Amino acid sequence: MRTRPDILTEIALPSGPVTVDEYGYLTDPALWTREFAEHAARAEGVILTDRHYEVIAFIRAQEEEHGIMPDQRFVLRFLGHGSGLTKSQAKDALYALFPQGYVKQACKIAGMRQPRAWSTG
Length: 121
Known about the structure:
By secondary structure, the protein is mainly α. The protein is 46% helix and 8% strand. The protein has 5 helices and 2 strands. Strands 1-2 form a two-stranded antiparallel sheet. Helix 3 crosses helix 4. The model has no long low-confidence stretch (mean pLDDT 91).
């Protein structure tokens, strides 16, 4: 249970302002833009590539389709599908893209809200 309100910050981007919580997660995923992704990636020390954007697009599509961001295991399945990667290799590939973790970096850069509790499956 939270005992204090979130600390919110407005970020001015060329595409318009967005609000993030104190950890840099968007408060409204519908306001996500590539500009926000670039901003969040810079803050995380991640240089985005086409492969990063494929993972981000998958996360966003899953959230839009199911109303909830996907658990890490679905992203691992996505990374392994078609490329012949084992689950372990897919996990290595995910952490090569987002070295500080799926929730901390991938979900944040993809514009998801910060989860209150999380299972990485």
